[in-house]
Write a structure and sequence with these properties.
This protein is an alpha+beta fold and 444 residues long. The chain has two domains: 329 residues, Rossmann fold; 94 residues, GMP Synthetase, Chain A, domain 3 (2-Layer Sandwich), CATH 3.30.300. It is built from eleven helices and 22 strands. Strand 20 and strand 21 form a beta hairpin.
């Protein structure tokens, strides 16, 4: 697909055998490159008795060692770089909150690649050259702000680099500048949507047509709230700083449901979290990615810790593989009385109870370092309460609230298999996302 004279996205439509040939060529080149230039991978190859010559096609990828976040930490800050520092054009760090950050370096070619995959992602999201992007991702060492910025410019869009926070000002500028596209975390898009609603501005009056949302897990209930309140197509963008940043995988605005992995650059595998062996195609496991074309800090089989599965969609426009929405990071999994639970599963259960507003927090209750219960605070739609036509200080209201909470608890029990204690709150009363990623798990 030729988007403009210097932008050609036709690789997204390659036939599978041609794609595998491209990936094979790129992987063999990469392994040779790392064997010559990366002290870290030379060591890894020696340890596992591999010679770069053993890798002849993409099917040999499972012979290669897995790279973990701990490898980046152990080699902080620049130990995984395959180029000298004077060949770098940019440095980003992970947004991790504990310990030293993980550091990622980019050559000029890498920055170009980053812009290309983000431009492709924006295009899949519905953005087109000439449109304006309201970029509410954080600028700074986080890859979201600059990543989307360069990608949008590459696509030929104009960018308002507003960054996250100061919601009232965000909304003022959306009203005045009339951008067609917005990007931010899904939880921050909800906050922006609430601010429009508070001002009495309806979806039809808002200029935005497309929202490019990611950096945290989200489900269909959040999508439908955002789409309805802002009157746009909301699509999912995935990525992680270690691999490049946003733009590893992207949903198409006319398809939704799952996102293409730009596998000409990022080769995906799904491994079993315990055995670390590939699972049968289509089954769930940990997403592991090999960067086929990066120069400054290529990674072989990087263990993202994100849980998903791969699939092909018969009606898909492009030929690349898709992944289902990330269920969560393996670290975010709660074990409630022996049952494994991701916050996204609770969020999904909310969508089966009419009137739940997906602003929620989970508090695991621990006894002797085991999670024995889960308390849930979640908001209820004002309209649903108004429709009851009952005073809030009456027994009838008390019963209505009790029944609503029970409905949610039952839905969670049915779908997730755990017993929870749900407390509902009036709309807009729980803390909102102020920009950036939200943490929905609270510690008691
Ligand atoms: O969050 C990069 C990014 C920026 C992606 C803007 C999308 C949009 P990190 O801070 O390194 O990078 O965090 C990466 O965030 O491993 C996932 O656990 C989570 N994550 C990112 N995108 C999604 C998504 C950026 N669409 C970590 N769905 C990843 C679910 C996501 N989780």
């Amino acid at each position: 697909m030729l988007v403009s004279k210097d932008m050609d996205f036709s690789v997204e439509y390659l036939k599978l055998d041609q794609l595998r040939l491209l990936q094979s060529d790129r992987l063999t080149d990469l392994v040779g490159y790392l064997g010559e230039r990366s002290e870290f991978y030379k060591g890894k190859f020696n340890e596992s008795g591999i010679s770069p010559h053993d890798i002849r096609s993409i099917d040999d990828i499972t012979k290669l060692p897995i790279t973990y976040k701990q490898d980046l930490r152990d080699n902080y800050p620049f130990g995984l770089f395959a180029v000298p520092k004077n060949e770098l054009q940019r440095i980003h760090c992970s947004s991790g909150t504990t310990g030293k950050p993980t550091v990622v370096g980019y050559t000029k070619e890498d920055v170009d690649l980053f812009s290309e995959v983000v431009a492709r992602s924006l295009y899949a999201a519905g953005a087109r050259p000439g449109m304006q992007l309201h970029n509410a991702y954080g600028y700074g060492i986080f890859t979201g702000g600059l990543g989307l910025h360069y990608g949008a410019e590459k696509l030929g869009m104009s960018v308002l680099p507003i960054s996250g926070g100061m919601t009232a000002r965000q909304v003022d500028l959306i009203i005045d500048f009339k951008p067609e596209v917005i990007c931010c975390s899904p939880s921050y898009a909800l906050t922006i949507a609430d601010e429009f609603a508070k001002r009495g501005i309806t979806a039809e009056e808002i200029s935005l047509k497309y929202a490019v949302l990611g950096s945290e897990p989200w489900t269909e209930i959040i999508r439908s709230h955002i789409e309805e309140k802002l009157g746009l197509h909301a699509t999912n963008i995935y990525g992680l700083s270690e691999i490049i940043g946003p733009g590893v995988s992207m949903e198409d605005f006319e398809e939704k449901g799952g996102s293409y992995i730009w596998e000409d650059h990022f080769y995906p595998e799904i491994l079993d979290p315990i055995t670390k062996q590939p699972v049968p195609f289509g089954e769930e496991g940990v997403l592991v990615i090999t960067t086929l074309t990066k120069k400054a800090m290529p990674l072989l089989r990087y263990w993202t810790n994100d849980i998903t599965s791969l699939y092909y969609d018969e009606d898909a426009k492009r030929s690349m593989v898709k992944m289902r929405p990330i269920k969560g990071r393996a670290d975010d999994m709660l074990i409630v009385r022996g049952v494994n639970v991701y916050p996204s599963q609770i969020e999904e259960a909310f969508s089966h109870v009419k009137g739940v507003v997906p602003n929620y927090y989970l508090t695991p209750i621990e006894k002797e370092q085991m999670c024995v219960a889960l308390d849930i605070d979640v908001e209820i739609d004002d309209e649903l309460v108004k429709d009851q036509k009952i005073d809030t200080d009456t027994d009838d209201y008390f019963n209505f609230v009790g029944n609503f909470e029970k409905n949610i608890e039952n839905e969670i029990k049915k779908r997730v298999g755990i017993t929870t204690k749900v407390k509902i709150h009036t709309q807009d009363s729980l803390p909102k996302c102020e920009g950036g990623k939200i943490n929905r798990i609270l510690k008691k």
